[in-house]
Specification:
alpha+beta, Cytochrome Bc1 Complex, Chain A, domain 1, 4 domains, seven-stranded mixed beta sheet, 31 helices, globular
């Protein structure tokens, strides 16, 4: 489990989904017609240097002069398993407090040192470790080393920030665990059923009661006990001078004292599970039943882990995996089915899980999952499956090392979990040697029926009317947890006076990154080709886009173009859906099709040595989809099940209602993936017509980024698309609607919702609007990043939410502006007021120079990091194509952002952020906030959640 402090760059994607508690998603891998033998040696080991200071701090350095950034990471060998008795969730709460004051840094100063200069910071708490990581422009390296050393040596813990941050963690618990469908399954119940003795059984997020039990003295003792140089790993990766780095590390870290007392360690060993266990629970706002089975596996450094890793990939990585093919695709038994290998310093878990399709039972789900596990125990995986999985893992490894922070994380985790910085590279080499017999052996050894722990996770409505309402699941009484022993003479650190405060070092000379240079060509049939060379890693991302997306859906056919795009990878004239998945995933690649509001796209990611066979599949998918009735019905059912899950999430439902309310019957008002009603009405002939209107060479653009030359890219494009002669069909004029002029106040009543989703939204602008850049800076000031005004007011000052942000949906046509957050139900009226007041304040006065500079840096830094990877560059260029933006914008982006002044921000804020004409949407347990909201908004409309009609402008 990974609990992060925040992911608050909300301007990047308007109205993001609430954080989910679903199992870790596997990145699909690219595919090919004939797969080459997997060779783990194709991935270069990470080159690093290491030294250990006298105080025990281990320092790893990974130099990369191709980037203009540097990643600084400090990992501590302490995690949720070390939470004190009666205080589960403590390590995670402590992680939050590390961003408050130190002796020389004021509270939230890390955001000034990172976000305000175009970087970012974050942290996470794992069962075995807590890590802190930043990425900043390389000239700010010394400043980050100073700051990390200061919070290691002299964290300030005081009552006000402690109380506020504890409230924030409570909101994170509500967001991730209580408000999100299946949140309790993965965050709470999964660890509790998986262990009987080891403290891994305690949920890392903790509980509201345990969070209340923690005291300031506990916090200070925890820091003194675990946050010490000999319990930490410092990793620096990116563009730096090695000699200078060593000097700075010595300057800031070498003087930190190593305590003369031992570090407490969890020494409990989880006994083997020899008797199966099973539980059933019933939870509110659960859209579909789910089943999860957990098996014990050894620690991450065990020699059997590579074989288990491959079994995990064979079972559920990509559309050619066994679980997808059998449970989801063939039998249509599950809406989704996954496995995940959760390895740790101690006993870990191999988990198989399925969310059932509508009308399917968990009994059938359990039977199918156990049959797949039995198949792995009883028969050898095929040579094709083994090759595919190895290639997928190689590609995924290369992708994870595209950035400095990716390489730094790999080294740090290897040190903390395995005690060996080369562990990841050694495991990859071992994966290359795994045989089918090895996989069967580990399946027989670890995935036994007697060693399983199962939970059926059911909608509350399915609970029996008479008798028990499910099993009670809790941390077992047999779990062994130590008390937190307060070290003697714990110093209470106080902030230094202004006179004594050590100043943060000045930044160095900026390092300028080279922007990619796109090369454009046009084939004889009108297909445009954009190529960017990037030869540092053997990866290529290819995306083919065609004008026409969700905005073109007919009024009564929401989701038509989304369903059409989904079906493009589900069968062509010569390949079935299974063959498409198999061919690409054999190459270690991934292929996917999706729709945006103004375009549809098929995206291929693959190692550069496999681009030729993979491109043939991409061309077939784009040019020859057949849209069979069988595939249409299968995809329709899966999509409806997915929509049902969204509608049980208060944050997501609030976003959908806000879009419909503001955009009305316009092109961006309906749910892009459709509704159960609209999806059921779509016919095959409508899908075929939607494809014909969208996909033709004269209306399409191919973007290729990575390890390829323009000449080679053109040759591939000519070979695979040169004969494409589909005629461009007439494009329907997108529907327009003026009903967005009437703001509404709407409460969607979702009884027992774990949180309230709050959205304040109003009409916006198109991407082509001359005010786009000024609007982007204004929005960044309002709600992009941890230091934005909304997050300052709602999270930092008051602890009312885990995060708050805003976004501008500036598309080919005018979209909308929205501010959003999630909070505990009783706080919803207060949060609405804070959003309204903050939006009003944007136009009331010019943004101060320092704030304006920091918000520009956020946008420029985000853009710079996005254009570091092949997929990121392809995505940016694809957006430009869709939005009719010239490719020269790549080089113009930074100057245009820098050219926005305070007067322009104030003017555009008055135009676009004035909440006077905004609609207010609150989705939650209305009985807990409706009366207070009505005091301010007596005209509020109340709609029961199960009565919301997203097909209608009225929502009724």
């Amino acid at each position: 489990m990974r609990l992060t402090r925040a992911a608050l760059l909300m301007g990047a994607a308007l109205l993001p989904l609430a954080a989910t508690a679903a199992p870790p998603a596997k990145k699909p891998a690219p595919k090919a017609a004939v797969a080459a033998p997997a060779k783990a040696a194709a991935v270069k080991p990470i080159a690093y240097t290491v030294r250990t200071l006298a105080n025990g701090l281990r320092v790893y350095a990974i130099r990369d002069t191709k980037t203009a950034n540097v990643s600084v990471q400090v990992w501590y060998d302490v995690g949720s398993k070390d939470d004190p008795k009666g205080k589960s969730g403590f390590a995670h709460m402590f992680e939050h407090l590390m961003f408050k004051a130190t002796k020389n840094l004021k509270s939230e100063n890390f955001d000034r040192l990172t976000e305000d200069v175009g970087g970012y910071n974050n942290a996470s708490t794992n069962d075995d470790y807590t890590n802190y990581f930043e990425v900043v422009p390389a000239n700010h390296l010394e400043r980050l080393l100073f700051a990390e050393a200061d919070r290691m040596a002299s964290l300030v813990v005081e009552p006000v920030s402690y109380a506020s941050e504890r409230d924030v963690v409570k909101e994170e618990l509500r967001l991730r665990t209580l408000a999100t469908p299946y949140g309790k399954l993965y965050s709470i119940y999964y660890p509790e059923i998986s262990y009987r003795v080891h403290p891994y059984a305690r949920p890392g997020i903790g509980s509201l009661e345990n969070l209340e039990a923690a005291t300031i003295d506990d916090v200070r003792a925890f820091h003194a006990t675990y946050y010490r140089p000999d319990n930490a790993v410092l990793v620096v990766a990116g563009n730096f001078d090695p000699a200078q780095l060593n000097q700075w590390v010595d300057k800031y870290f070498a003087g930190i004292k190593k305590p003369d007392r031992p570090i407490p360690r969890v020494t409990v060993t989880e006994p083997p599970r020899t008797t199966p266990t099973r539980y059933t629970v019933y939870e509110p706002n659960t859209p579909l039943p789910a089943v999860l089975v957990s098996y014990q596996v050894p620690s991450d450094n065990n020699a059997d882990i590579p074989a288990l890793t491959l079994l995990d990939a064979i079972l559920s990585r990509g559309d050619s995996s066994r679980l997808y093919q059998d449970l989801v695709y063939r039998d249509q038994l599950a809406q989704s089915a996954n496995t995940f290998l959760d390895t740790k310093q101690g006993t870990g878990s191999f988990v198989v899980t399925a969310t059932m399709a509508d009308g399917k039972s968990v009994a059938d789900g359990e039977k199918a999952l156990r049959a797949e596990v039995a198949r792995a125990r009883d028969t050898l995986v095929t040579p094709a499956e083994l090759t595919r999985a190895k290639n997928q893992l190689i590609t995924a490894t290369i992708e994870s090392r595209e950035t400095a922070d990716g390489k730094a994380s790999t080294i740090a985790r290897s040190v903390i979990i395995d005690g060996d910085p080369a562990a990841a590279d050694k495991q990859l080499a071992a994966i290359g040697k795994v045989t089918a017999a090895d996989i069967r052996r580990v399946a027989r050894k670890y995935l036994t029926d007697n060693g399983s722990a199962l939970i059926n996770y059911m909608p509350a409505e399915m609970a029996p009317k008479d008798g028990p309402k499910g099993d009670k699941i809790a941390v077992p009484d047999t779990v062994e947890v130590a008390e937190l022993k307060t070290p003697g003479n714990v110093d209470v650190v106080k902030p230094a006076s202004d006179a004594d405060r050590v100043a943060v070092p000045a930044p160095g000379k900026p390092v300028v990154a080279a922007l990619p240079a796109p090369v454009t060509m046009t084939l004889a049939n009108g297909l445009k080709l954009i190529v960017v060379e990037k030869h540092d890693l053997p990866l290529i991302t290819t995306q083919i886009l065609a004008n026409g997306g969700g905005a073109a859906d007919p009024a009564d056919r929401a989701g038509l173009n989304s369903l059409t795009a989904d079906l493009m990878t589900k069968g062509t004239k010569t390949r079935s859906a299974t063959q498409i998945a198999n061919e690409v995933e054999k190459l270690g690649g991934s292929i996917s099709s999706a729709v945006g509001w103004d375009a549809a796209a098929v995206t291929l990611g693959v190692k550069s040595d496999q681009i030729t066979p993979a491109m043939a599949v991409l061309a077939d998918v784009a040019r020859n989809p057949v849209f069979t009735e069988e595939e249409l019905e299968r995809d329709r059912a899966q999509t409806i099940d997915g929509v049902q899950v969204q509608l049980k999430n208060p944050g997501r439902l609030a976003s959908l209602v806000a879009a419909r309310t503001v955009m009305g019957g316009g092109p961006y008002g309906h749910p892009i993936t459709g509704t159960p009603r609209s999806l059921k009405a779509i016919t095959r002939s409508e899908v075929q017509a939607a494809y014909a209107r969208t996909w033709a060479p004269a209306r399409a653009t191919m973007v290729m980024v990575g390890d390829i030359t323009p000449a080679a890219a053109k040759a591939l494009a000519e070979a695979n698309f040169g004969s494409w002669q589909a005629k461009a069909m007439p494009v329907a004029t997108p529907k327009t609607d003026s009903t967005n002029a009437a703001p509404r106040i709407i409460v969607v009543d979702m009884p027992n919702a774990g949180q309230a989703g709050v959205v304040v939204a109003r009409p916006g602008i198109a991407r082509s609007d001359p005010d786009f850049y000024a609007a982007s800076v204004a929005n960044a000031t309002l709600g992009v990043g941890f230091s934005s005004r909304l997050n300052q007011e709602i999270r930092i000052k008051r602890g009312l939410a885990y995060g708050a942000g805003s976004g501008i949906a500036a598309r080919r046509q005018p979209g909308y502006v929205a501010a959003n957050t999630q909070t505990k139900n009783p706080s919803a009226p207060e949060v609405v007021g804070l959003i309204i007041d903050t939006m009003k304040g944007m136009g009331a006065a010019p943004v101060p120079d320092a704030e304006l500079a920091s918000r520009k840096a956020v946008l420029i830094g985000d853009f710079g990091r996005e254009t570091e990877t092949t997929g990121g560059i392809a995505g940016v260029l694809g957006d430009y194509v869709v939005e009719n933006v010239p490719l020269s914008e790549l080089k113009a982006f930074t100057p245009k952002v820098e050219g926005v002044d305070a007067a322009a921000v104030q003017r555009v804020a008055q135009r676009l952020l004035d909440p006077t004409n905004a609609s207010i949407i609150v989705v939650g347990d209305a009985k807990l906030f409706l009366d207070d909201l009505r005091k301010k908004y007596p005209s509020v409309e109340v709609i029961p959640a199960d009565k919301v009609n997203l097909d209608s402008v009225s929502l009724k």
